[in-house]
């Protein structure tokens, strides 16, 4: 077998292994629990399915990072769904069509929460003291290798939106930061 074919075979095997490990984190029955900050603040949806007033973290992240050439791509392990990007395959919505669905918002929450589940749990346990060290924050700020560079400047309203949620800041404060960040996009 040529070196090129060996590399391709190795990449295919690695991709399958990674896919299998991610699929075990989030089941299709939605009965897994995550030690992660508030799902309501992240998604903007109450547990009963009712919408919450104010902008949500998922909306900001999807608009800032969820384009089809970035985390709105099937090839990304942290994949974000939204009205203007990738749509959940279980639904028949098209990009640019209907609003982001509750299923898509919950999938975004799972994607972020399972990126580093143990470290995220630590951040929850220490009231967000270690939130700045999470990969989702470090990559967004460009402090950790990130193909997209630094889409979120440290100390910006977008940064406050994400880190405020991770720290467990009051929901109104997070929603305000997220809305101000969205207004600048």
Overview of the molecule:
The structure is a single chain. With 185 residues, the chain is mostly helical. It folds into 2 domains: 30 residues; 151 residues, no CATH class. It is 47% helix and 0% strand. The protein contains 8 helices and no strands.
Low-confidence stretches: 3-27
Number of helices: 8
Number of strands: 0
Distance between the termini: 49 Å
Number of self-contained structural domains: 2
Mean pLDDT: 83
Major sheet description? none
H/E element string? HHHHHHHH
SSE class: mainly alpha
Write the layout of secondary structure elements.
Blueprint: H1 3-23, H2 39-43, H3 57-65, H4 102-113, H5 117-125, H6 135-141, H7 157-167, H8 171-183
Helix pairs in contact: 3-8, 7-8
């Amino acid at each position: 077998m040529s070196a090129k074919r060996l590399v391709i075979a190795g990449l295919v095997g690695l991709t399958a292994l990674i896919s299998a490990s991610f699929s075990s984190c989030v089941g299709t029955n939605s009965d897994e629990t995550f030690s992660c900050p508030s799902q309501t603040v992240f998604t903007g949806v109450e547990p009963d399915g009712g919408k919450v007033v104010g902008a949500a973290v998922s909306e900001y992240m999807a608009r800032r990072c969820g384009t089809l050439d970035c985390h709105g791509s099937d090839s990304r392990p942290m994949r974000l769904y939204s009205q203007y990007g990738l749509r959940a395959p279980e639904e028949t919505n098209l990009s640019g069509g209907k609003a982001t669905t509750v299923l898509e918002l919950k999938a975004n929450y799972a994607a972020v929460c399972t990126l580093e589940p143990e470290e995220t749990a630590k951040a929850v346990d220490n009231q967000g003291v270690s939130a700045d060290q999470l990969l989702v924050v470090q990559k967004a700020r460009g402090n950790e290798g990130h193909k997209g560079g630094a889409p979120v400047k440290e100390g910006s309203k977008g940064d406050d939106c994400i880190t405020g949620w991770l720290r467990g800041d009051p929901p109104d404060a997070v929603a305000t930061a997220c809305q101000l960040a969205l207004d600048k996009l």
